Amino acid sequence: MAYSLNVNGRIHSVDVDADTPLLWVLRDVIGLTGTKFGCGVAQCGACTIHLDGHAVRSCVTTIESAGSSAIMTIEAIGSTPKGSVVQRAWLEEEVVQCGYCQSGQIMSAVALLNANAMPSDGDIDDAMSGNICRCGTYPRIRAAIKKAARGGSNTGNGG
Amino acid sequence: MQMTRQFPRTSLPVIAGLAIVAVFAIGDGRAISPTTEAPAGGALKGVAEFQSIADSGARSVALFTEAAKVITSPRCMNCHPATRHPKQGDTMHPHMPPINAGESGTGIAGLSCNSCHRSTNTAVPGSRVGSVPGAEHWLLAPASMAWEGLTLGGICRQIKDPARNGGRSLADIHRHMETDHLVGWAWHPGAGRRPAPGTQDVFGALIGAWIATGAECPA
User: Fold this and answer.
1) A2-76 and A77-149 share one CATH topology?
2) Backbone angles phi, psi at B201, to 5 degrees
3) What's the CA gap between B88 and B95, in Å, rounded?
4) Contacts of A23 (CB under 8 A, 6+ apart)
5) What kind of fold does domain A2-76 have according to CATH?
């Protein structure tokens, strides 16, 4: 079945089954491989993308259910003001270890900050609890989110 | 700095174990069909089977007790918890990943229920999960409608209490139980989880008969 997808501001025409997960379409059809496959069952968050600015797990979001929503992936999040600040904070806090989960972590972090500009520790825990990091970078993720919330300043330890 | 909480609140192996072993899996290999004649979730007696109870009040209590087989099933109880955190699976364990549904019941800033739960059940072919459940307006019941930890009598009194049931009359309650699509999802929960007992029609008829006999509650 033919679909027209708005991904990162570009229109992509794809021909896939209606129940194809967006993750597969993004990676295997369109070739945007920044979004990762982790568990495939919405348990780990590695596949997080934005639909109309909201974080969703692309492994369990079918192309049919995405409808005409604007899709944003890790490849383009740095072009948004909030995404740019988050990515800079990520680098400055040296968040990444192996890196596999980090595109999902960043997409969730940006979604959080778009909805809550100054999240508390509890807010961060609640919003990020679905994003698993096998390297245990959680304290640095929290510090980076707090730094990004402050616009990138080094005030406070964020931890 | 002392951190009182860290996300996630469990480890991946634990999540994987819960997800695979208990969260969704039935484990007996049965196919779940929403159109099956014999409900996979178990039997539910019809209203006619209670006509032999002569005392109207006793009959009303018996009707509610039968209907409560649905109300207390995991498909209903998991989203009527005592906290703002849903339960999951036939064992009614804490939802994985940990979720705070917030006051709205639809999630908190940055992580809403529909991050994973779409407007229909989403099949996950080739996995033991079976499917991720979904329906329109997927949300946790309001805190006033928490059933977890209550006795059948306590649940019954909550359902009747407009101060705690969303301002519903008994007629509203009957309509909600009999026709609401999110209630109806309990009989069509998708592959990997057991439906509520009986059918929504039988359940709705039991609730209607319970109300007609005075809406009496168990002790």
Assistant:
1) no
2) -65, -50
3) 5
4) A35, A37, A47, A58, A59, A61
5) Ubiquitin-like (UB roll) (3.10.20)
User: Mutual orientation of helices B200-212 and B170-179 as an angle, nearest 10°?
Assistant: 170
Q: Which two tokens stand for residue A97?
A: 């270890």
* Yes or no, beta carbons of B127 and A42 under 8 Å apart: no
Q: Do A157 and B1 touch (CB under 8 A)?
A: yes
- CB count in 10 Å sphere of residue B150: 15
User: How large is the greatest C-alpha to C-alpha distance in chain B, in angstroms?
Assistant: 68
* Minimum distance, in Å, between the CA of residue A48 and any CA atom of chain B: 9
B101 contacts in chain A (CB < 8 Å)? none
Q: Half-sphere exposure of A91 toward its Cβ, with a 13 Å CA cutoff?
A: 7
Predicted confidence (pLDDT) per residue in A45-100, tens digit: 999 999 999 999 999 999 999 989 999 999 999 999 999 999 999 999 999 999 99
Give first-to-last CA distance, chain B, whole Å. Answer: 51
Summarize pLDDT for B149-186 with one digit per residue, the tens: 999 999 999 999 999 999 999 999 999 999 999 999 99
Name the residue facing A138 among B7, B16, B116 (closest C-beta). B7
CA B19/CA B12 separation, integer angstroms: 10
CA distance linking residue B150 with residue A52, whole number of Å: 40
Nearest Cα of chain A lies from the Cα of B210 at a distance, in angstroms, of 39
Residue A154: pLDDT band (50, 70, 90) is low
CATH of domain A77-149: 1.10.150.120
For residue B107, the Cα-to-chain-centroid distance in whole angstroms is: 18
Query: Which one, of A84, A93, A158, A152, lies nearest residue A119 by Cα?
Result: A158
**Residue numbers of chain B with a pLDDT score lower than 70:** 1-39
Q: Which sequence spans correspond to the domains of chain A?
A: 2-76, 77-149
Closest-approach residue (CA) in chain B for A119: B109
Complex ipTM value = 0.91
Strands A70-72 and A2-7: parallel
